[in-house]
Amino acid sequence: MASNSPRRNELLNGLGVKYSVKTLKNVDESYPAELKGADVALYIASKKAEAFRNHMKSNDLVITADTIVCKDDQIFGKPTDRADAVRMLQALSGAIHWVFTGVCLTSLKDFKSFTVGTEVTFSSLTEDEINYYIDHYKPLDKAGAYGVQEWIGFVGVERISGSYFNVMGLPVHKLYTTLKDFVPYSEVIYPL
Length: 192
Description:
The protein is an alpha+beta fold. The protein has a single domain (about 5-190), classed as Alpha-Beta Complex (Maf protein). The protein contains eight helices and five strands, in the order ααββαββααβααα. The protein has helices at about 5-15, 40-50, 80-90, 125-135, 150-155, 165-170, 170-180, 185-190, and strands at about 60-70, 75, 95-105, 110-120, 155-160. Strands 2-1-3-4-5 form a five-stranded antiparallel beta sheet. The longest helix has 15 residues, at about 40-50. It is globular.
């Protein structure tokens, strides 16, 4: 797994798949301005996958992922600072947005990729609620400035249509079914 995200690692652990975490520094996460929504997440996940190609061994399988939040064609990545987190949560408050995660499975011989989208409806959040969440949960490392598994998910998320785990950052059901096609079935079902 090419991610330092504790949430992605927790979700991958839930599948019972044996893996190790490896990351590369300085992967450029910029994207062409004409890309929208799901295409942005997949583009960045693909760039992360490509960065590993020169570091892979013949039996390596690298999983890369990128999650973005999208509202009205505006992309919300990780906030740059506290003020940016406030801006994002104010924009998401009382509205519907989409969470897209692009995932790539890469080996030296094969490449598979997919994107999963989940629709999320937020209730209206007060300024005090937004400030409390940011001050106590420090969401600067999360797309859209929130973690659905944290306090704000309990009090702010009215409805989710699609994969809850995708909103956490890794659509594990789709990953599992794709892994079954990528590696021998017994290695996915009966991990070491």
